[in-house]
Model the fold of this input.
Amino acid sequence: MKKILGVTVCALLYSLPVSADVLGLSFGATAGAARIEYDGNDDYGFEYGVNAAYHFNDMFSVNAGLVQGRAEVSSDLSSAKNDIDYTAFPLTLRGDIPLVIGNVYAKVGTNYYDYDIDTPGMRSSDDGWGFTGGAGFVFTLLPFVDLSLGYEYRDMGDVTNNSILFGVGASL
Done:
């Protein structure tokens, strides 16, 4: 009985955060450039968002966020541009490799997307689920404040998003 209780206590303690993050929670904001591909054409726009994470330990976390962006992509049918506005809700599992002054990370998951495409005389929209992934570097400025630079990829049906984002985060 004591052996089972000991194993159970060890398993519970292992699942708690074991880092400077007391509660294992973090939140942040990102902004950056986005390359949007649609109908064989691509162009640059901007993207911004907020995110939150729960850290299981120093190496693994689950992340959720809200991202909004916009770009104007050339149209094959006319000289007009496709005005693309999108919103995405990424949900990812992230793995970190700790370094002396921060860490490098990679993440993979899914995102729920919703976009609108406005072309003169025509409007289309779509929503659904797609793949998302990314990688980057986090610089620990202070024990509870981080700066990050990362790449994110999002598949949003007929629209593909590649973003380079700068972020600021805080841990609890």
